[in-house]
Structures
1.
Amino acid sequence: MDAVAQNIRCSHCGAPVEFKPGELIATCKYCGFTTVIETGQAFTFDHSLLLNRFDQTQIETPIRDWMRGGFLKPGDLAKKAKLSEKNLVYLPFWVVAVEAKTTYKGIFERITPAIVKEGKLEKEYSWLVLARKASDFPTREYNVPLEGKIPFDFRKIEGFAKVLNSEIDRDYALELAKTQIEAHHRFLLQQDVDKILESKTELNLKQMVYLHAPLWFIKYEYKGNLFQLIIDGATGTALKGDIPSAKFGLL
């Protein structure tokens, strides 16, 4: 069950701003003013929005296209699958634009004798951090179309859509991004060395953006079983989907 919603008064228009326990940042659905819940003060960071391109009828086109594509799917999936739920949710993200530099020392064992190698790994990222604590959303597979973002405008959000608030603040999102980038760089270093002896990653933060993005959460029925699919509402791209096997559940 969902946690019981609470509310505070919007300091901009006075309307009730609904939030749930654990959420730290809330946006007024009447005027679009974004508030830090603990203090009631205005949210001072860049708040952006990606626009949804599909209504509840149009979204069926990318859904059926996904069902028809790929050799692993049953040939009659697009024809026989019945859509049982089509929910548009605006998920909150922190987009962390950084320059990341890792200096490392390791042992290269693919030749004899093994040698010690030192070097630097430098990359730029717009690293995506989901601003919800408990979720299996495929963040790393989501190639956010940042070129399409606009300043947050509550008037652009459909009345039937659900807007989720952030459960993590800016500082925690930055720490998460740093931890994830460090782990990613250690993975990349395995292409250059077999054993990592030392590594140190430094981040140069360029910008952080709080972003709401439209995602369609789809449930469909095929041969008596229910499956799920996530579609990016800004591009129509399928991010994650359950694929029925010929006889039983999932591949």
2.
Amino acid sequence: MKKNRTYLICLAMALSTVVMIFKAVRWSGESGVELAQQEFLGHFTQRDWKECHAMVAETYTDKWQFQRNELSLLMQDFSRQFIIPPRAAWRTISISKNNKAYEINGILSFEGGTGPSSGIILREVRTYTGLPFRFQWKQGNILPWSWQLEGIDHPTLELPSGYTPGRHRMLTVPF
């Protein structure tokens, strides 16, 4: 009886090791960055603000001078305009590595979504889909799936003058 238990424990440990190795390979490098990007946008689409916020690095900065908490509020402001949120669609153009960080460039668009002003908002958002967004990712710790968003950039995206995340009810730009 004791021998069977020992075999089961060894089998469970071996299976756990295989699963961890598989996850480590799957979530490393460029494939890991793409998975993190899709996961982040999935959380955004589902309005899972806790998970979105957890994926943003404490050191997050961008060209609009937003930090982690402000980015979280900005995403909520955008989503608040929809009764049913639009699905965030991402098409990767390129991925590059700079030191230990990765940059993923691609086209971000929004599909679907309903609300009183959803048509106006989505038309405005489409004006930014011609040029790629740049998301900067870095692994947060030794766990292979611990990717953290360090920054977002877009060459032409400008926010409304005087916009402060969390203080305005209407926001017509993505993120």
